[in-house]
TrEMBL record:
Pfam families: ADK (PF00406), ADK_lid (PF05191)
Name of this protein: Unannotated protein
Keywords annotated in UniProt: Kinase, Nucleotide-binding, Transferase
CDD domains, per database record: ADK (cd01428)
Molecular functions per Gene Ontology: AMP kinase activity; ATP binding
The keyword Secreted appears for this protein: no
Organism expressing this protein natively: freshwater metagenome
Residue ranges of domain Adenylate kinase active site lid in the record: 130-164
Length: 218
């Protein structure tokens, strides 16, 4: 058994982070912690957090830093993440979140921050065609020939378009990525913790690049 890993995956929405995080999670035997998935679960369950977050998410805006930091601090201290590590997907998204993450993880620092690089025009077309299973969260690409209603091949759930995958919200999220999240690349680059990986290619090719880069730094 390998000794786990503490990873952050950065990259534009639609860069393939979700797909690669699932594989990395199996490979390093650590939980995949997606703040977007956590928020969507809260929305589905109708919790106080979910009720507050729904309008923010649907508009393509960011949920407040304090809320997100509290959520992640609690999650990475859970039994499955505390000792072996985790893969953070969608967090941090701002420099303030990254600074707090360093404080929270001071006793067990991050091993590496990976930036999955995919050009904006490519992710734009992927996001417009993205469909997700409402139950298991699996991602699919619509080609226009799918049956309606579309049923998930993994679990039989409904495959739908995310409420925030409208053209306006997609463009807004990509703009926010440039202004809020891109500065993280400098933040982690300056402290020597960043690995930039070409995210264009088949899932297998990208996964091979990712594991090689991460294993070099463990
Ligand atoms: P994602 O699935 O990562 O694209 O996240 C979906 C939405 O959840 C984002 O567009 C934000 O509204 C919200 N969200 C997820 N992670 C964060 C975060 N770290 N900070 C602020 N908002 C977040």
């Amino acid at each position: 058994m390998n000794s786990g890993a503490r990873l952050v995956l950065l990259g534009r929405q639609g860069a393939g982070k979700g797909t690669q995080c699932v594989r990395l999670s199996r490979h390093f035997v650590v939980p995949h912690i997606s703040t977007g998935d956590m928020l969507r679960a809260a929305v589905r369950e109708g919790t106080e957090l979910g009720l507050m977050a729904k309008a923010v998410i649907d508009a393509g805006n960011l949920v407040g830093d304090d809320i997100m930091i509290g959520l992640v601090a609690e999650r990475i201290q859970a039994d499955d993440a505390r000792d072996r590590g985790y893969i953070l997907d969608g967090f941090p998204r701002t420099v303030a979140q990254a600074v707090s993450l360093d404080e929270i993880t001071a006793s067990h620092p991050l091993d590496v921050v990976v930036d999955l690089v995919v050009p904006r025009d490519l992710v734009l077309s992927r996001l417009s065609a993205r469909r997700v299973c409402r139950d298991c969260g699996a991602n699919f690409q619509a080609t226009g020939t799918e049956p309606s209603p579309w049923t998930c091949e993994n679990c039989g759930g409904d495959v739908v378009q995310r409420d925030d995958d409208t053209p306006d919200a997609i463009n807004k999220r990509l703009d926010l990525y440039e202004t809020q999240t891109q500065p993280l690349i400098d933040f982690y680059g300056e402290s020597g913790r960043l690995a930039q990986i070409d995210g264009v290619g088949s899932p297998d090719e990208v996964f091979a690049r990712l594991t090689k880069a991460v294993e070099q730094r463990l």
